[in-house]
Amino acid sequence: MSKRAYGTLLLAFMLAATAALAGCGGGDSDKKLIRIGEVTRSLFYAPQYVAIEKGFFEEEGLKIELTTTPGGDKTMTALLSNVIDVALVGSETSIYVYQQGADDPVINFAQLTQTDGTFLVAREKIDNFDWNSLKGSVFLGQRVGGMPQMAGEFAMKKNGIDPHHDLELIQNVDFANIPAAFSSGTGDYVQLFEPTASIFEKEGRGHVVASFGTESGHLPYTVFMTKESFIKKNKKDVQAFTNAVYKAQNWVAAHSADEIADVVLPYFENVDRDILVSSIDRYKQQGSFATDPIVDEAEWNNLIDVITSAGELDKRPEHGVLVNTEFAKEAIAAVKQ
């Protein structure tokens, strides 16, 4: 989401509390309710679903309501308007809110993914892909100002490709419609998340030729965040939440893609199990799932470099302004592996 869009955030969208409710963790009525808004439903967020399904939130005295709030703008609006308590979204959204001069800044407190989660998919099979193949092509990209697009452009520039001059870049297709647009013939290349990338390969509609996650390096790509005021009033609950996330991260690191697929299957009922396994394995192999909740300074600075390269940053926020590592560090010290 572009920083410009946040100026009209609260007027643009008011989320109904009942919309797209999914994946509630069980638990007794005496458990603290935490409402999570995830920016999309994705295998990229497998550790979150593991935390719910394996009962890690319940162990920490929490009951979870999980709502899918499609898009960074809608997710952040839901958070700022108190429809949800915690947002699972890209860290760039907290930066855009900060740049608007928010009195109650959004704080990143527990990292879930540490790389970009998209893959470069070509319409035709390419045995020995070279980034120069993108020159003169039609590229079906992601939304301006969103992390997928910014990380994609960062990776292209790293490989000597100017995404705004060396190819025809299409960015006027809504996120949810990008796969269908590519299937219908738009573009020579497209940027896709899993499991869509694997589904396209299986059905012969496209072929994965590169990973934007590998190319753009470690960064706080998807993070649990909340308002500073919520943290001040609910420190115990934020700590419990972070503990549960870390338990799930340990579990994911210790188990196979096959075992993880069995746990997250209820969240992807319309996806073949073999696709779930291959998608999760692809993310595990490239180290996309964070192994602990800490948003460290090196990752943050890489994120800032990516956003700066995309021309979406007015001023460079320091790590300590929008990141709180206190809960992550305490979780690492308290949770037995």
UniProtKB/TrEMBL annotation:
<feature type="signal peptide">
    <location>
        <begin position="1"/>
        <end position="22"/>
    </location>
</feature>
<dbReference type="Pfam" id="PF13379">
    <property type="entry name" value="NMT1_2"/>
</dbReference>
<comment type="similarity">
    <text>Belongs to the bacterial solute-binding protein SsuA/TauA family.</text>
</comment>
<protein>
    <submittedName>
        <fullName>ABC transporter substrate-binding protein</fullName>
    </submittedName>
</protein>
<keyword id="KW-0732">Signal</keyword>
<dbReference type="GO" id="GO:0042597">
    <property type="term" value="C:periplasmic space"/>
</dbReference>
